[in-house]
Amino acid sequence: MFELLMSADMMLPDPDGMAELLVSKLGVHSHPKWRQAFADHPYIAHFLRVHKSLAVAPTRIEPQVHLDKPNPGDPLFHEFLDSLKAYQGAHRPMLTHSIVVATHGAKFDLLMEKLMRRRLRFRLAQRTPDMPFDRMWMGVTPEDPHYEPSVDGGLCIEVMPIEPLQMPPDTFATPAPQPRELEPGQMVRVSARGFLVRNLDETLRRCSANLDWEPQEPVETLVREGYRRATMDFTLPNSASLDVIEATRWNSDAGRYVNTWGPGPYYIRIAVNGLAAKAEDLKARGVQFSWVEESEAVGGKPLIRIDPAELRGQVFEFEGI
Question: In the chain, what are the domains?
Fold first, then answer.
């Protein structure tokens, strides 16, 4: 259905400071050219990489903020963004501006025709010199720029064509590009983005009926983790998956989170070359974390969970490859 989960995003007041924190605490890669800010689109975003090759690791980590300034490039966006915050919960530690997915232009056209034919709610941003391509948000219209989950089941999806991203040609190679000369503990790619919903069956029903988007495998029940999970894959094997999760126990980590803060984005999981080596790297950086010896979430293998207090409430995990 979609080629790529473009980014694992996080809205917070200070994306510049958060980018520096992610570099120093986790070792992600930053570059001045990966910081985006436009006069006519008043936001600041960093598109950080866990591996320098976009072909190997096409899903980026995106700390960002939308500034309280006039927005001539998209004058409806502030009102839409306020409705997204209200939907997720204004005090939620992790907020998304959208789950950004990308697809080839021809498939984007087909999706738009499908939404029109089915009379589903969506909104297009105008094209501007800074962004001369289409961007579409689900669950909202220009005359009513307030998000509601009738189209995507609460996933807050934004869709754009993949061509403007100018991905390197080998991104689409078969077999998928693999990293070369990996060092122990080196990060490889963002492997998964977790997203908590109240009713997984309802979310999947809407994605199926409205978007023809299905999980790649049957829904899993992870008893020890205390949740049910649907993994929404993308056609690019190196893209992160979108793990849509419904808590099944109030006193599991997922259950406590959703019943404290509400539905919305959850973990960002990063695959590394050797989990024990990454643990040593984190210790050297002074980062607090827990080591899960056997995690159902990664097929019974070990998992590292970073203490959210280290990263302003954001939930990061590491799994080995």
Answer: 4-171 (3.10.180.10), 174-320 (3.10.180.10)
